[in-house]
Fold this protein.
Amino acid sequence: MVTEGKSAVDFTLPGIDEKGGEKTYSLKDFKGRKLVLYFYPKDNTPGCTQEACDFRDNMARLLKGAVVAGVSPDSIDSHRKFREKHSIPYPLLSDEDRKTALAYGTYGEKTMYGKKSMGIIRSTFLIDEKGVVKKAWRNVKVAGHVDEVLEELGK
């Protein structure tokens, strides 16, 4: 599991870039820049759409301090439709086998509406220019989360 103060786990994942093109992303692609890497359960669900749009709507402020990338188990095709429908201006990465989510500690048992299931635990990581995790938010509540990220970036 990824923890604050330690190196982020490297990954290699297919994704959709900000223009809708397919590309493979690795942690080293973001080296030299701060990265807000957020894990979310599913494209086009209410909470995940709100979170993606909150990041989208704050891109001008976020880009002053970091780049953003979203990760979910959805397919490239699903990400492409999600990006187009909601004008997502940052990469969406596909972790279909959930190996990256497992490595980051964002896949596991969760409870929704009183029912336990296995799935992506909404989480965000702020990774510095050298690949060190500066802040980890786990079990994220969507409302106000981007403001928390912006506050941390402002420190």
